[in-house]
Design a protein that fits this description.
10% strand; elongated; three-stranded antiparallel sheet; 162 residues; Arc Repressor Mutant, subunit A; mainly alpha
Length: 162
């Protein structure tokens, strides 16, 4: 089976035979796959009526487990945004009824951000739609190959881990 990356590599090999083009074969495919995944993610979230940034915050709360709450500082670490951005996001999610702010029982000056039942249903629906979309990308790959691919990608990403 050939794809457009094969054509790119052949053209570059003809023009630059002095270079090892193995990275192009790998990363051009990853880049193209990334674009398709971004589109699938956007479609899944649109169907669930959430934006990507909303999903990121709601998913962080959902992954925290019952009672689905985190401090704003923990949300910052989970979503990698600034405190000003997070305040804005929590404000907007609160206005939509997807999260609520509660006093932190362990810190009189602090607050916790908690998923509302509507927020939990929203993030669960969005996550289900996302998983279904991502499953379609892997449909033609046997389970053993999926496991191998995940391990190889983990190895590639290891140098970038925090």
């Amino acid at each position: 089976m050939r794809d457009e990356v094969d054509e790119l590599v052949e053209a570059w090999a003809r023009e630059r035979p002095d270079l090892d083009l193995a990275p192009v074969e790998v990363f051009s495919r990853i880049s193209r796959l990334g674009r398709h995944l971004d589109l699938a993610r956007r479609d899944a979230f649109t169907a669930a009526k959430v934006e990507s940034w909303e999903f990121d915050v709601l998913a962080a709360l959902r992954r925290a487990g019952a009672p689905y709450e985190l401090s704003p500082g923990r949300l910052l670490r989970e979503t990698l945004v600034t405190s000003g951005t997070m305040t804005n996001r929590v404000d907007r999610l609160t206005a939509r009824g997807l999260v609520e702010r509660l006093p932190d029982p362990n810190d009189r000056r602090g607050v916790l951000v908690r998923l509302t039942p509507e927020g939990k249903a929203t993030v669960d629906g969005a996550f289900t739609a996302l998983i279904e979309a991502e499953q379609s990308f892997l449909a033609d790959l046997p389970d053993k190959e999926r496991t191998k691919l995940a391990a190889l990608l983990r190895t590639l990403l290891a140098p970038f881990a925090d």
